[in-house]
Amino acid sequence: MNELFDAIIVGGGHAGVEASLALARLGFNTCLVTSDPARIAEMSCNPAIGGLAKGHLVKEIDALGGEMAVAADATAIQFRRLNTRRGPAVRASRVQSDMDKYRDRMVETVHACPNMTVVKGMVEEILFENGQAAGVGIEGGQSIRSANVILTTGTFLRGLLFTGLSSTPGGRAGDRAAERLSDSLTRLGLTLGRLKTGTTPRLFKDSIDFSLCEEQPGDKIVVPFSRHSAGLPLPQQSCFITYTNERTHAAIRAGLDRSPLYTGNIVGRGPRYCPSIEDKVVRFADKERHQIFLEPESLERDWIYPNGLPTSLAEDTQLAMLHSIVGLEECRVARYGYAVEYDCVKPTQLYPTLECKAIPGLYCAGQINGTSGYEEAAAQGLLAGLNVACKLRGKPEIILRRDQAYTGVLIDDLTTLGTEEPYRMFTSRAEFRLLLREDNAWYRLAEIGHEAGLISENDIEAVRAEMRQIENELIRARKVIVPSSEALDHLFEARGIEGAKRTYTRENLLKRPEIEADDLMGVDAEFATLPASVREQIELELKYEGYIKRQKDAAARLIDLEELRIPKDFDYRAVGGMSREVLEKLEKLRPATIGQATRISGVTPAAVSLVIIALTKRKG
Amino acid sequence: MNFALNDIIAAISTSPGMGGIAVIRLSGSGCHEIARSFFKPLSPDCAFEANRMYAGWIIDPADGQPLDEVLYVRFVAPRSFTRQDVVELQIHGGSRHARYILDRLLENGVRLAEAGEFTLRAVLNGRIDLTRAEAAADLIAARSDGALKAARRQLSGELYRMCEEARRRIVSTLAMIEAYIDFPEDELPQNERAGESAALEQIRLLLERAADTYRRGRLLADGALVVICGAPNAGKSSLMNRLARRERSIVDAAPGTTRDVVEEPYQAGGIAVRLADTAGLRQAEGGIEARGVEMAWEQLDSADLVVWVVDASKNAGQEEALIAARLAGRKGILLLNKCDRPAPSDAPQPEKLWPQAESLRVSAKTGDGIDLFEKLLEDKLSGEDSPADVPLITSARHHAALSGAAAALMRAIAAINSGLESEFTACELRDALTALADITGATGNEELLEDIFSRFCIGK
User: Fold this and answer.
1) What single string gives the DSSP state of each residue in A503-541?
2) What is this model's ipTM?
3) Any idea where the domains of chain B sit in the sequence?
């Protein structure tokens, strides 16, 4: 292929899709290389998108102009809002997806996208010329050329699938592993790690007795992830809950001698938050039962995903285990569970743009960086794509701050601290959690998405108008009087609040923990005419004003540090006055900003001060 | 790392030592508003114009009492040393008072400056030219090294262990809260909010008690100033000599003999004490005695403990009224001296003279009651409630860390009790961990997650 592409994306998973769509939509000549163009955006594990902190990521992807939110809405077969009884920052949306429809929709979107060339092939080598990336070499000898390569290879790097004592090379069930790319990366000087994850057996729907299980329907009120979606078009399905029992645990223990986890065959580290069922039974031996969610994978294909049972036990052990569980006594297995062990790139070798520090032009995004989860992958893919676009246009790079987005927390954690296990996003990772809500993702990020070129003029104008309205209404809420009325008295009575028969400002009412925005619909006619999204923001900003202001102030204090960029060729040795330990840490990580430097453990305020002074001298 | 470039920082910018004038410097947007709330200008229509010096009083925010006479200078950005808003407070009482005021500032959202941090801001904002930046860098490197060593010296193993234990317990409570937030579908054991709040209260009390040892810690490190005051001829000098066990002050029946402030070293419960015998407090006629009286009043203001000696063999007079007015609201020891003599019909009544004080009847001449007084002195200086099970702290940074963490825990408990959603409690607990980080080092998310995953079987 003689064509010179603006960017090549290696891998058509959730990261690769976002990266390639972003670049192609921005008008760049984009090449997506995948080993199977019909399996783009396959959901290799559970059939769900969103959840705590992940739902937040999906909304951020939407606000930055990514595809995941729209696709998730179009293919959702169950919607649930989690943590509804907690505060607004930790409420999160999740959908069960028809994974076939999700994949097919993404395949169609990618293939139909202008400026996109999809190439079927297995990449074996990163071409490196004149001190930077120059393209990729494909199995069979062909090469594709571009100065920008984004690696989104998921679990495919020297992937090894384990079930019982047998192991076979593979990227996931049904796909070949990328056997030779790891060597190419090592030759280029990258340090690789080895991680492990696992998935559950898949069961045939008609072999399960759901009448013995607890039904878990979705929510009646559904709220789509995307601002562009009108609703969820597909019919909604229930999930079912069943439990393991003592017999299950006995069956598992009996099979441990053929578990690759316990025989030492698997060396990669697995995620603590998603342990295999054999791990749960061994580590929490006192626990009498473990919850299993039976989740539909698709409306048409009759596979059920028994969430909670990831395992790499031998097939006969898996069967014995399954058959001991209520509702699954007669179940037939469509595909056995397996563990997959794979190479990852230690992400501290990347700048926060996701470009490799040692290899200009080579970017990594998604599971290759040690993360887990479709949402984490997609967010990184989108940011890698946007940063390549910035570079191609000569615009400043996009680094989201920790107080701006979960995506910022994700990339900062990876590139500053690295990770020893597959990294999943949790809300507890975000110190500015109260600011990073699902409900304000567009207000936080749409300007950046617009600046990058993926958010349309119409959309940004609408968002700006909403933000102005919210600002005005917040000021007005402090003045507007809600007159005393029978309806208001009833509300006070119903909520058991003293103080009826008086007038209040709108703010007074909304600040009360007992009163919600919806309660005002009948007592404050003017408020009722505001758009729902504006009402929601007014309520949250007023009700939690003290805490929100504290976090905003704390974030504002740190912005200066985040905006002090450290040039890539900065010479730490010339700074002087730093301890050797601190110097080594700074030289190894090469932080992109002073803010990032402050988050490296062991780097002292004095060292940071010295670097700032050296930077000031350099500028002057 | 508690570090930023635009928050409000403060430090005592004069070298430590006794007496003289100490300067507290604040820098950062909003510093005037905070410093202003501690300052009561002499002139009520004070305009706080930039670059002008205003005389006034520093007010103790705890009780609204004037603490010390100070000069207040406000510099407005960019016309200041750091090119940020700056306030300088010149404090008469010297470093002892300066530290007290600094501690109050640190409790009100001001951060203690790191070594060379004012200079750093000056460099960054272009106030110091680049040829001098090199020298600034050397200064920071040298000072931070010194500061680090000093901090290590001050950080006893005991204090570290206690804070580390407190930190671990906060992490454990936080882990519980976070597990419920992030894993709503996992079957976690029922959590008890009441239990949470009780556990946090225990930690808070421990931290608060440790923070409270700062006073005694400082006294141990610096020594305490005990000022003996009273009307002329009440027997102050006799008392001094009795305590010093030798004739130090000239004792004379003529009132007003002591004109200078006489100091004597003394030990009370391991604390080095400077006993200061002052001129008899009265409306002096002028000359040397008047100057002596003025100095006595100044000494009173900077005393750690005031001992007021009253002649119990005489009726209370004008001088007593004068002193009572001056000491009103303060704590201290009231000595009813000359109890070897018969009391008059209208003898001074301690509860009327100085209700906040503890009173004792003594005779400096015969030594009656002096042993009790020495014991009381020791208790007062050590703080009667000074616990034996928490380490003493001597550094302002450690004090700010402990009291900051204790205050955050107080807010966390309030959040729990008011029924706020648990992520707000989590927010406060993180603040507590951030405050403690100056002693224990920062708490990473990784440790929190490890706590969650080792305790709970997570994994839908």
Assistant:
1) -EEHHHHHHSTT--GGGGGGT-HHHHTS-HHHHHHHHHH
2) 0.93
3) 9-113, 157-217+390-455, 220-382
pTM: 0.89
Phi, psi of A316 (to 5 degrees): -70, -35
Average pLDDT over residues A341-353: 97
Query: Is CATH 3.40.50.970 the classification given to domain A4-196+342-452?
Result: no
CATH architecture of B220-382: 3-Layer(aba) Sandwich (3.40)
Class for the domain spanning B9-113: alpha beta
Judge whether B271 and B219 are in contact, CB under 8 Å. yes
Q: B134 CB near a chain A CB, below 8 Å?
A: yes
Q: What is the pLDDT of residue B382?
A: 72
**What CATH number should be reported for the domain whose range is B157-217+390-455?**
1.20.120.430
**Residue pLDDT, tens place only, B50-79:** 999 999 988 877 777 777 789 999 999 999
Q: CB A616 to CB B124 under 8 A?
A: yes
Residues A560, B1: C-beta atoms closer than 8 Å: no
Task: Give the residue among B175, B457, B176, B447 at the shortest CA–CA distance from A276.
Answer: B457
Q: What is the pLDDT of residue B287?
A: 65
Tokens of B71: 């000069």
Query: pLDDT digit string (tens) for B229-242?
Result: 888 888 888 888 88
Q: pLDDT tens-digit profile of B122-148?
A: 988 888 877 777 777 887 777 776 666
CATH no. for A564-619: 1.10.150.570
Does the distance separating the beta carbons of B5 and A428 come in below 8 Å?
Answer: no
**Domain A457-548 sits in CATH 2.60.40.10:** no
CA distance B405 to chain A (A): 16
Is the Cα torsion angle A344, A348, A353, A357 positive or negative in sign? negative
Q: Which of residues 286-315 of A touch B (CB under 8 A)?
A: 287, 290-291, 293, 307-308, 310
For chain B, the straight-line distance linking the first and the last C-alpha, in angstroms and rounded, comes to 35
Residue B365: per-residue pLDDT: 87
Check if B385 contacts A (Cβ < 8 Å): no
Judged by CB atoms closer than 8 Å, whether chains meet at B423 and A290 is answered as no
CATH top-level class of A202-338? mainly beta
Of A272, A598, A616, the CB nearest to B3: A598
Q: Which of A53, A274, A598 sits opposite B459 (nearest CB)?
A: A274
pLDDT value at B356 more than 90? no
Domain ranges of chain A: 4-196+342-452, 202-338, 457-548, 564-619
